[in-house]
Design a protein that fits this description.
The protein is of the alpha/beta class and about 170 residues long. It is about 55% helix and about 10% strand. It contains 10 helices and 5 strands; from the N terminus they run βααβααβααβαβααα. It has helices at about 15-25, 30-35, 45, 55-60, 70-80, 85-95, 105-115, 120-130, 135-150, 155-170, and strands at about 10-15, 40, 65, 100, 120. The protein has a 5-stranded parallel beta sheet with strand order 3-2-1-4-5. α7 links the parallel β4 (about 100) and β5 (about 120). α8 (about 120-130) runs parallel beside α10 (about 155-170). The protein starts with 10 loop residues before the first strand and ends with a helix.
């Protein structure tokens, strides 16, 4: 079933962001679904995520698991370049349905931008949750710190400091 995006914001999550949230505080994903809008994940992406008990647990955390369209699977399988099959599936599904792609993968973000697909950083998702009233300032900082500590290679100190500046500018 194809979701209607009219007047609503829908998000598709890349594995790297889900992994960060699972490692930091898995239940935060429920708040995203409640306050931000529907969360989607494409089934081929699930196999990349450790720390969850498959599709059933993702549904419990607020995700809708969707199967890629056959045309998108073929295109992803034939696509060359900087993206994995799962990244192509995520991008093509986001483009098809008008989803925002939540990812920290720089290459995926670049190709999404080239394809006209809106993106959001994982920590940016926390900022949006804070703006929506789904999380306190202190809780947002705590989760971002945990993500930074568990994934310092990709969520560097510079990125964490920028996050703190961004969220502080919104007020407590």
């Amino acid at each position: 079933m194809t979701p209607s995006t009219e007047g609503r914001t829908f998000y598709i999550m890349d594995a790297c962001v889900v992994i960060d949230f699972v490692n930091a505080e898995k239940d935060i994903l429920k708040l995203f679904a409640e306050f931000m809008g529907p969360l989607y994940i494409v089934s081929p992406v699930i196999e990349e995520i450790n720390g969850i008990d498959g599709e059933k647990e993702l549904v419990e955390l607020g995700f809708s698991v969707i199967e890629p369209e056959i045309e998108d699977a073929y295109k992803a399988g034939e696509s060359l370049g900087p993206l994995s099959f799962q990244d192509w599936i995520c991008l093509l599904t986001a483009k098809r349905h008008g989803f925002i792609c939540v990812t920290n993968d720089k290459k995926l973000r670049e190709v999404c931008n080239q394809e006209g697909v809106r993106t959001l950083w994982g920590l940016g998702f926390i900022v949006e949750l804070y703006k929506a009233g789904g999380i306190t300032y202190e809780h947002a900082i705590c989760i971002a710190r945990k993500i930074h500590e568990s994934n310092p290679k990709h969520i560097s100190n510079k990125i964490f400091e920028k996050f703190k500046k961004d969220i502080s500018s919104l007020g407590k």
